[in-house]
Amino acid sequence: MSISGTIKKIFRHTETGLFNNPKTQDDSPPKINTLFDPINNVNHTSYTIHDNTGHNKGTGTSIILKQKFLITYQSKTSTFKGRLLTIDLFFRQKQILRITSTYLPASNSNKNDSIKITEQCVLHLNEILNTSHNYHHIILGDFNVQDHSQPSDNTNDPPNKEASIQHPKKRLTKNTFISTLKNHNLIDIHKTLSDSPSSTFRKSNSNNSTTLSTRIDYIFTSNNLSDYILDSDNIELPPTEFDTDHNLLILTLDNDCFNFSPTSATKILSNKKDFIDYKKLSKEDWSLYSESIEQFIDHNWQLSIINTNSS
């Protein structure tokens, strides 16, 4: 089982082994699960949405919404062959978050039509991105490939099925899937935050000694979400608790991104600007200003990177 990704109590996991079931309907209710927390003596309710439309056991992906109120914002769900599960969440101020849980085929051979399925996933990804220009995107999961892709122009990555007919000889691979994300200006979170991101997958031999360690799990987000990223992590799960050869990838976003609180919504609606008369500032004011700027940079990783590169 592959596990990766969490954002404000939204989880997703892949290779569920659920397949060959009727297509999930947009209005079908999620599965409700209750887990008792003995430490706090409370029950936690979660809602699981499955893509079980694959045709073999090596398919299936799910998204779990841990907090009940998030269900209120779910407006649409779409599935694709147990490989791409997409949900749309509508928040205040017309903020739309589209989350796509991805599980690309592990094999590069024609077994179980892996090559054909991969090409179909690339085309479907283009449809997802090209029909939602004003959305916030988070596309994450087990891509089953190391990233050797490079951004290219639109002629190399067909934006839709019609365009693919004009390039019948081009093979669409799992690296094409990643380059498609880059061409739509999505960013690889862990690679952005680290020059050498850690491996996410390990394969052991019969003696339980590690023989392979690589990065095949990813979290990509729209550029417009970068200002709201609070933290990310890559955690190796203890084998005593989890039966998985994948790490847990974590992404934490600020609530202000989706205007959960009335306070943040009010700020956006008022559009009020504060002006400072710099001529009236004292030395103490300037000192306090400098300290505040340094603290702000320390707590915003994008500015920290820029500051480091420029020094």
Percent of sequence in beta strands: 25-35%
Computed CA radius of gyration, to the nearest angstrom: 22 Å
CATH level 3 topology of the largest domain: Deoxyribonuclease I, Chain A
Major sheet = 6 strands, mixed
C-alpha end-to-end distance: 44 Å
What gross morphology would you assign?
Answer: globular
DSSP, total strands = 15
Secondary structure class reads: alpha+beta
Name the CATH homologous superfamily of the largest domain. Answer: Endonuclease/exonuclease/phosphatase
Number of structural domains: 2
Instruction: State the low-pLDDT regions, or none.
Output: 154-167, 260-273, 305-311
Give the ordered list of helices and strands. Answer: EEEEEEEEHEHHEHEEEEEHHH
User: What is the helical fraction, as a range of percent?
Assistant: 10-25%
List keywords for this structure.
single chain; 311 residues; alpha+beta; Deoxyribonuclease I, Chain A; 6-stranded mixed sheet; 5-stranded antiparallel sheet; globular; disordered C terminus; Endo/exonuclease/phosphatase; catalytic activity
